[in-house]
């Protein structure tokens, strides 16, 4: 801070020296007033002042065509007239725009011009005696114009940039060269017009000033339009390139870079809006700043317009460590979301001009449209790979990532651990509390598991129903520790939703490792984790973590109670079934026994198991020999019917219901079932199957004896 104040004082001292030196030069050349001189000074002052009021804005400075009149007076009138007319014109022009600039500039700008002109006259005085002896007056005027103009150009830019550096401690070669380039172009118009004015003055006298005013106004308008078009074209070109990018971060960074180059801001930060309403900032050095809050940011976002603070008070100082005195805030606000704010600052007051504000507003509008569109696309893409209920990745995306990570880990010889979590007795909780509470349990379990998995950079997905799956670059021991942490946290968690409190929620966990368990393929790794879940955790009492071992293989595919295939067998078989086009349309009939919990409560689990066995025999006798029948859940069965037209589904459904209506179960009597149908029309729908079946299960109608659902992808 001390260093900054010292530099700022040096800037003030430099300005004072400029003012004193300029006054000394003016006082050494007093103006001799006559009637003609008064009109010349009046008209010259007015035209120079108007040129100052309507400049062209560059990133770090302003330029105008006032030099046409400046050099016209230099080659047409005496030294004193030239100095005083330029002083008065610059003074009046600065006074007219003083509300847009620093107050001390009222004297600094005129005196700087006087000093630079004096430097030019001094150099010309050294050359004039030799040149005038051998050349005509016209050639002398041309030499005077070129020599004084060149010295003025060099000394003005040198003094100006030293002055800016002392005040702002910021220098950019890019901005400097840009300013020199533009002023060089302007000099190509200034010199000829000034020379034309010198030639016209003997014929039309004082009217020459007004004749020169016309091309000055036209050329100024052309340069201003060209500058705006150049900037607009750059923004449009950048937006065309950005429109092909799907990454919001890339768009944000590119916009940040363009905005900084436009304003030549030494201090800048890209602020992203966070869900809690605060902003997260990153400056050009990549330094991250969290939890930024300020009324100016909220105002810029609410007004959805570029906000300029020309002279920041202490309360308006966004970042005190920046030591800046003017800010400009560029909000990026779309129809669907507030993306953030680009904040830029300069150490000097009034560092940003009205043109900056307009151009940045145009940039913000264009970029906001692109970001808004990409945000919609991003949300659609996210929705396509996430499960709506839990917010986790869905089965399809998980399977894609499993395939990628499996082959990468196999090639690199790295660890890869796959963990499956299953909520114990989840169907019982659904029956007791209802599906709304059951969904909340799923959400909270997902939240707990996700918080643990994120710490180990493991990817978590909803696998189907009440199952979740995680993959990560972990050893067996690291995977076991993660699974055990999730299990304990869920076991100790109090599940509360509205007036319901669900107690004793536990999970069973299965784990398999790529190299340790010699997985041959992504499916093999998944099935080994499945086996450890079912045989190592579920069959051993639940609420535990089990690691795969080879003895699970022979027990995986056949249900020990009913002798039917298990869901694990279906998962292994499904892909090969979908490879045969003759199997489509393929129908999955989900058979759910109604009142199974009542049967268990009233007659006991032994009778309940007998009912499940009888149902399995009944389905075997009812369906065709090549129909695949699996035990899906505790009291649910899944029948796979291949290559049957949808028109025949009614016959199959009637056959199943008739079979159950005619059969009398020992000790129970008649048993009814819910029948839900999910159809695969082609192989591309296979990754969505389990999720669709789970959705169908949650859509059971408990008031009807049979309901058929046909979902489309």
TrEMBL record:
Residues 414-550, 584-711 form the GGDEF domain. One of its GO terms (biological process) is negative regulation of bacterial-type flagellum-dependent cell motility. GO terms for cellular component: plasma membrane. It comes from the Bacteria. Pfam families: GAF, GGDEF. The chain crosses the membrane at residues 6-27, 39-63, 69-98, 110-127, 147-166, 178-200, 206-226. Keywords: Membrane, Transmembrane, Transmembrane helix. InterPro entries: Diguanylate_Cyclase, GAF, GAF-like_dom_sf, GGDEF_dom, Nucleotide_cyclase, Rev_trsase/Diguanyl_cyclase. GO terms for molecular function: diguanylate cyclase activity. PANTHER family: DIGUANYLATE CYCLASE DGCM-RELATED, REGULATORY COMPONENTS OF SENSORY TRANSDUCTION SYSTEM. This is Diguanylate cyclase (GGDEF)-like protein.
